């Protein structure tokens, strides 16, 4: 059986829908594909479903500006037509931003996407960025970070987990922390864990307001590329 046409969709996970689980996001996007009337392929087996593959999961409560999924079509539909149909069939918080066709031999999104960028918003004094930046640098300089999740403790090697130094700034009276992490099957450091550790070490109070994944990237030698533009 032919593989069909591999369509890649870039979308956002915003507003109240940032509280959806990864499974709920998958189901909502699949419903949008059905409602759009696209000629989607189905999987084999006793419980056939839409043939689709999604990028790395977002935690509940974390928003995403550039998220991706692939869906296979049985026949070609112009990308502009697909985008129009999906836009009309998707909830605003999961609206498609762009679509394009991907080559059949390209690696899966889960394998290709190994770098993620995040923006963490923290309520704090507006004059705090430089001070907090020093505290955060101290946490990163310690070399490791132990994170407890669901009763288990995982120790992250920060030199590997953070391919770039975090950046700290301010915007509209909030502290803005930009963090780049590596992602993979062995586990990914959540940016809020790093920020919480810095807050616990800081002499000044602060509380985390929101986390947004702003980009997902493919490592191509020394370059970091988006899986589609």
Q: What this model shows, in words?
A:
This protein is of the alpha+beta class and 229 residues long. It has 2 domains: 5-106, Alpha-Beta Plaits, CATH 3.30.70.580; 112-225, Alpha-Beta Plaits, CATH 3.30.70. It contains 6 helices and 11 strands. Strands 1, 2, 3, 4, 5, 8, 9, 10 and 11 form a 9-stranded mixed sheet that branches. A two-stranded antiparallel ribbon has the order 6-7. The longest helix is centred in the N-terminal third of the chain and has 14 residues, at 22-35.
Helix and strand composition category: alpha+beta
Strand content: 35-45%
* Portion in helices: 10-25%
Shape: elongated
* Average pLDDT, all residues: 92
> What is the terminal separation in angstroms?
30 Å
Q: Return Rg in Å.
A: 19 Å
Tally of extended strands?
11
Name the descriptors:
single chain, 229 residues, alpha+beta, Alpha-Beta Plaits, 2 domains, nine-stranded mixed beta sheet, two-stranded antiparallel ribbon, 11 strands, elongated
């Amino acid at each position: 059986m032919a593989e069909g046409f591999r369509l890649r969709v870039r979308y956002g996970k915003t507003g109240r829908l940032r509280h959806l689980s990864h499974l709920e996001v998958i189901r909502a996007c699949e419903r949008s594909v059905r409602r759009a009337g696209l000629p989607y392929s189905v999987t084999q087996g006793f419980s056939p479903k839409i043939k689709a593959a999604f990028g790395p999961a977002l935690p509940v409560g974390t928003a995403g500006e550039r998220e991706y999924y692939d869906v296979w079509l049985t026949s070609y539909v112009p990308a502009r037509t697909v985008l129009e149909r999906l836009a009309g069939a998707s909830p605003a918080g999961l609206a498609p931003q762009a679509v394009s066709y991907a080559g059949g031999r390209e690696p899966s999104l889960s394998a290709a996407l190994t770098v993620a960028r995040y923006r963490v918003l923290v309520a704090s004094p507006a004059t705090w960025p430089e001070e907090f930046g020093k505290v955060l640098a101290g946490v990163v300089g310690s070399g490791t970070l132990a994170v407890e999740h669901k009763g288990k403790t995982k120790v992250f090697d920060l030199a590997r987990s953070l391919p770039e130094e975090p950046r700290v700034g301010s915007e509209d009276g909030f502290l803005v922390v930009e963090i780049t992490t590596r992602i993979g099957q062995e586990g990914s450091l959540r940016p809020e864990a790093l920020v919480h550790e810095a807050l616990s070490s800081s002499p000044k109070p602060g509380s985390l307001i929101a986390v947004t994944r702003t980009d997902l990237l493919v490592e191509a030698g020394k370059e970091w590329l988006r899986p589609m533009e």
